[in-house]
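Input/output pair, single chain:
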Amino acid sequence: MTGLPVRRASELEALPPEKRWLVEGLWADQAVGIVGGEPKCCKSFLALDVAVAVASGAPCLRRFRVAQPGKVLLFAAEDALHVVRSRLAGISVAANVSFETLAVHVITVPLLRLDVPDHQHLLRETVEQLRPRLLVLDPFVRLHRKDENVAAEVAPLLAYLRELQRRYETGVLLVHHARKGAAHARAGQALRGSSELHAWGDSNLYLRRRKDSLKLTVEHRAAASPGDIELALRERDAALALEVVDRPPEVAAEAVDDSDTSPHSPAERVTRALTTAPGPLSRGELRNVCKLRTITLSDTLAALVAAGRIRKVDGAYALAR
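Output:
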């Protein structure tokens, strides 16, 4: 038989649940994707937190379990090596892991271009030799000289990274900037440049500042995404690292209230809908019943889950027991 190889769908290999995640809930196994956000939104801190977690096996952000730890290969194009060392050391303290034995391997060349064939060859050889579980490249804008707004110029660079992922079974985390003035756009659509970047990611993490808070939005190609997560960059002794902010119930409810003309807050509308529903409600059902914007509903659900007032049941929501 000539032509392309084919197999019945039922004969394709099934991936067991324990191998579906690199970092549970945040990053799928062998996923390519983006950590995105506007300047000064702690994108590099988040990327390094993921790197420390994968390299050590400690929970990412002290919250998300690492399912399959292993070596990490990192290139930080904007930061001096002593800054990279200092940040990794601080996150290691926060994660309570040994910095001296941390399996994060830093590429030390001053310049790496994904659009230069010689540089592509060197990076491919390095990945082949080290076989990392995760490759972290920070940021995308310093890794090429192409026009990010032109899909035909961006696509080959992303295809090269996808090739590394498939050939060497490694995840690829690419740090990228969001467009200025795109605060009200959907997180992925706020990324600077071609829509190829948003479409490329299997797992994407977006950071945004909303008033005085830092919000993390998680997006997956093949898994349900959790609600927004509030983060804060905090210094404790020698540790400067991001951490998840847990709000008490009354503060969480206030945090998701918006300027809607309804006399009831979004949190009250959601809890009332779940109280009267015969069973759990999906996001779409809640959006229709509560008449809330998608972003407001996401914030509300995340806050109510964090506060223990509601729970997630098979992708839907119900009142906490």
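The first strand starts at residue 21 and ends at 23. The chain has two domains: 16-244, 249-319.
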